[in-house]
C-alpha cells in the first residue's frame, strides 16, 4: 500500500532541496509523486559530486522509497543502507528499510530498524504501523494490536479510513469508510491482527468502499 509510506516524504526532502534547488529540476523530480521521475531526479543528485551529504542521503532514501513502491526491494534496501551510512539517525529511512525488509520476508531483520525509528520519532504513525506488521508476522498479536491502535491514535481519521478500506477488501469490515474507530472497525482490526497473514492495509492506494 503506497499512501501510508509516502505521505511524509516530500515534506522532509523539499526542505533540504529548496535551499539549493538545481536549475535542471532534479530536486523537483526527486520529490515527485511519479516514481520514474523521482528515481531519475534523485539519481542526478546522488551522482552530483557537488551535492551536500545530507542532500545525497535524502535522495538515496527517496529513491529507495520509489524503488520499494515498484517492488524492487533489494535495490531499495541498498539505497537505504547507503543513506543511513551518511545519516544513521534518519527515522524515515530506518522505518522504510524496516518496511522493505518486512515486504521481502525478513520482518525480524527489520525490527531493530523500526524500534530505533520509534525512539527517534515516536509520533510517526507510519513507524507504529510498520512495527505492528512485523509483530503480527512474528506472532506477537497483542503487541501488534497495541501498535495498530497507536497508529490510529496518531493518524486519526485518515489512518482509520486506510484500515477500514483494507479490512473491507479482506471481508472483515462491511461498514462505511467514515474514519471512526467504532466497535465494528475495532473488531475487524483485532480479528485481522491475530492472523499472521492478514494485512489491514489495502492492496493499493486507490481505496474503494467495501461492497455490501
Please give the count of helices: 11
CATH architecture of the largest domain: Alpha Horseshoe
Order of helices and strands: HHHHHHHHHHH
Report the top-level CATH class of the largest domain.
Answer: Mainly Alpha
Q: Which structural category do the helix and sheet elements fall into?
A: mainly alpha
User: How much of the sequence is in beta strands?
Assistant: under 5%
Mean of pLDDT? 89
Task: Specify Rg, calculated over alpha carbons.
Answer: 18 Å
Total number of β-strand segments?
A: 0
Per the CATH scheme, the topology name of the largest domain is Serine Threonine Protein Phosphatase 5, Tetratricopeptide repeat
Largest sheet: none
Distance between the termini: 23 Å
Instruction: Give the fraction of residues assigned to helices.
Output: 55-70%
Shape: globular
Number of domains: 2
The low-confidence parts are 6-11, 18-23
Amino acid at each position: 500500500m503506497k499512501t501510508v509510506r509516502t505521505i511524509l516524504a516530500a515534506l522532509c526532502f523539499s526542505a533540504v532541496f529548496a535551499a539549493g534547488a538545481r536549475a535542471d529540476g532534479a530536486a523537483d523530480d526527486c520529490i515527485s509523486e511519479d516514481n520514474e521521475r523521482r528515481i531519475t531526479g534523485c539519481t542526478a543528485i546522488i551522482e552530483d559530486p557537488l551535492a551536500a551529504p545530507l542532500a545525497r542521503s535524502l535522495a538515496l532514501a527517496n529513491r529507495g522509497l520509489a524503488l520499494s513502491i515498484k517492488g524492487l526491494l533489494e535495490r531499495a534496501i541498498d539505497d537505504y543502507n547507503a543513506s543511513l551510512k551518511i545519516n544513521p539517525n534518519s527515522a524515515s529511512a530506518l522505518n522504510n528499510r524496516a518496511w522493505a525488509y518486512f515486504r521481502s520476508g525478513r520482518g525480524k531483520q527489520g525490527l531493530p530498524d523500526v524500534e530505533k525509528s520509534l525512539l527517534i520519532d515516536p509520533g510517526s504513525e507510519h513507524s507504529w504501523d510498520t512495527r505492528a506488521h512485523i509483530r503480527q508476522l512474528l506472532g506477537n498479536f497483542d503487541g501488534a494490536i497495541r501498535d495498530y491502535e497507536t497508529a490510529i491514535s496518531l493518524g486519526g481519521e485518515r489512518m482509520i479510513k486506510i484500515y477500514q478500506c483494507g479490512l473491507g477488501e479482506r471481508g472483515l469490515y462491511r461498514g462505511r469508510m467514515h474514519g471512526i474507530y467504532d466497535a465494528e472497525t475495532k473488531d475487524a482490526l483485532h480479528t485481522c491482527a491475530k492472523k499472521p497473514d492478514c494485512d489491514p492495509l489495502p492492496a493499493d492506494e486507490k481505496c474503494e468502499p467495501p461492497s455490501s
